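Researcher: We're teaching a course module on how sequence relates to structure. For the next exercise, students receive a sequence and then see the predicted structure as tokens, so they can try to spot secondary structure elements on their own. Here is the exercise chain.
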Amino acid sequence: MGHVASGLIATFIEAPLELQKSTTIPPEHYNLCARNKPAVPTSGNAAGNVDDLLNLQGEPAPPAPLPDGFTTKGIIALVVSIINGLAMVAIIAWYGMQQSPATEAGEQDAGSQGENQPLLAASDNAS
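Model: And here is the predicted structure for the students to work with:
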């Protein structure tokens, strides 16, 4: 989306005459172009000139350039994303350190000891 908003989009058509033979544009598409303010020309060149295709007077202006550096909105988004990421890592670590209900009640047998221990807990058995 950022590339489209910046005007960095291009479509290369290798065989325009062949494409015109096999493709029709729905009238709804033309209606959308006409509803724009200002209306987008649907024939001719970028300026809507059908007589002199090299005359581009009246073509739509490109979008304004992107601002240099970080904007306030970008900095806020970055900070919120970092805080969210750190919070999620902390929650996952906290969840991994929790005892299962069977371990808390002391109902474990020797065979399932590893399954009921916290994932990140230090073990006395070094394998």
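Model: If you want an answer key for the exercise: The chain has two domains: 8-64, 72-116. The mean pLDDT is 81.
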